[in-house]
Amino acid sequence: MMRASARRIWGLVYRHACLYRKSWPRLVELAYWPTLEMLIWGLTARFLYLRGGTAWLLAGALLGGVLLWEVALRAQMGMAMSFLEEVWSRNLAHIFISPLRPFEMVAGLMTVSLLRLLVGLLPAVALAYLLYAFNLFAFGPILILFFVNLVVMGWAVSFGVMGLLLRHGAGAESLAWGVLAGLTPLCAVYYPLHVIPMPWRVISLLLPASHVFEGMRAALHGRVAWRELGLATMLNAGWLGLLALVLVREFRIARVRGALLTLGE
């Protein structure tokens, strides 16, 4: 049974892989925005570095923030946009007429999200090293915890977006790239958490990414902020579970209303 489930998941992954295999503009688009963001902020970081003093720490925080935030953005958009591909092609009804189960579809979209993330982010990481001598992997093994927490946060937001798409249809598609980007000011990506004024800081403390980036800045000073990483992990577990329930509920409502047949029209 596990083997059959894995084959169905692979079938969905292969379906999306074929979209990119036959379309070089899609592949270019995956790397375009992460690379552009890295170039813009990389030049800003270089300007700060050339000023000397302790500005190199600020420059490192900017480049690290840019590259790590792209992990969350690409994970979220990779999953949400793959779901939208099914909506735009009016393929959801065909998917669920097949033996593919809802959790298998989610597992397939998660896999596609990871593949899109790697294809989109690795060129930006390589350019950051070649142009600005910034090595993201210099963080060491702690980078894995940063990466996992940001990917999970991106997936959690995608669950909420997919639920809204099932409820409101393709008219809510702008949320696929707008929700997490709109949270950027509250996630302390480029500046410490204490810079965010109250009461917005209360919201920031509830977002896993805020604690991940506090941990990243601690790592630049040679410390491991286990407390921040622990908080990020617990918050991710809570948000992922809550938004997964939202997705399941909206899927059941959509199936009862017959919305899976009309979604995208």
Describe this structure in words.
By secondary structure, the chain is mainly α. It has one domain. It has 11 helices and no strands. Helix 3 (55-88) packs antiparallel against helix 5 and helix 3 (55-88) runs antiparallel to helix 7 (175-182). It is globular and about 60 Å long. The protein starts with a helix and ends with a helix.
Give the rounded overall mean pLDDT: 86
How many domains, in number, for the residues?
1
Question: Tally of extended strands?
Answer: 0
- In helices, the fraction of residues equals over 70%
Strand content: under 5%
Note the overall shape: globular
Biggest sheet layout: none
The SSE order reads: HHHHHHHHHHH
Uncertain segments: none
Our measurement of the CA-to-CA distance between the termini, rounded to an integer number of angstroms, reads 35 Å
Judged by helices, strands and strand pairing, the structural class is mainly alpha
Radius of gyration: 19 Å
Number of helices: 11
Write the SSE topology.
Blueprint: H1 2-21, H2 24-50, H3 55-88, H4 92-97, H5 102-132, H6 142-168, H7 175-182, H8 200-205, H9 208-220, H10 226-257, H11 259-262
Helix pairs in contact: 1-5, 2-3, 2-5, 3-5, 3-6, 3-7, 3-9, 6-7, 6-9, 6-10, 9-10
Labels describing this entry:
265 residues, single chain, globular, mainly alpha, 0% strand
